[in-house]
Amino acid sequence: MNCRFMAAGIRAREECHRAPVDPLPHKVPTFLHRRRKINNPFTPNPQGTEKGAAEILDMVIALVAVVVAILLGAFLLISQNPKSGIGAKVYSKAEVSLHNKRTDCWIIIKDKVYDVTSYVEEHPGGDAILAHAGGDSTEGFYGPQHATRVFDMIDDFYIGDLEK
Q1: Contact assessment for residue 147 and residue 123, using Cβ atoms and an 8 Å cutoff
Q2: Locate the Cytochrome b5 heme-binding domain: which residues (predicted)?
Q3: Residue 137 pLDDT level (bands cut at 50, 70, 90)
């Protein structure tokens, strides 16, 4: 049998069984076809498997970087949590007593020191907050005049612990 006819028959069979080259409609510009093929690491890459593997490696590296950034951010937030008491600055009563003005107001609540200077003007009780400026405000803070939301708000003003 003639080899040329055999080769032609094989080629014809291959062409019949070959999958369509491009599943996208012909109305889509060709640059979009190429971009789709290059950017999708799970489709065969016309430049070779090395480039496809490199793209997958880049995605893995980016994913690892995001995970590390999230963990680092969480660690930094936890280490600054005022309720933990770890690494908190310690102030003496004498040092706190120096901050007793409207423009520099620190208070002590249950052996924790709070800088409430930025809140003095917003305080619903007016200048009542200044009565305890530079001193212990625990009794006044837990009085009936305060709504429960102040217990959540006070953490925003925490700066350290009182020296024992």
Answers
A1: no
A2: 88-163
A3: confident
What is the mean predicted confidence (pLDDT) over 89-100?
92
Closest CA to 24 of 10, 35, 14, 13: 35
Nearest to 142 by CA among 154, 159, 134, 130: 154
pLDDT band of 9, cuts 50, 70, 90:
low
CATH fold of 90-162, please?
Flavocytochrome B2; Chain A, domain 1 (3.10.120)
Backbone angles phi, psi at 19, to 5 degrees: -70, 155
**What are the residues whose beta carbons fall under 8 Å from the beta carbon of 101, sequence distance 6 or more?**
133
Strand order in the sheet with 158-162: 90-91, 158-162, 112-115, 104-109, 100-101
Residue intervals of the chain classified under CATH 3.10.120.10 are 90-162
Q: Tell me the per-residue pLDDT of 141-163, one tens digit each, with 9 for 90 and over.
A: 887 777 777 888 888 999 999 98
Can you tell me the distance from the alpha carbon of 115 to that of 99, in angstroms, rounded to the nearest whole number?
9
Nearest Cα neighbor of 82 from 130, 120, 114 is 114
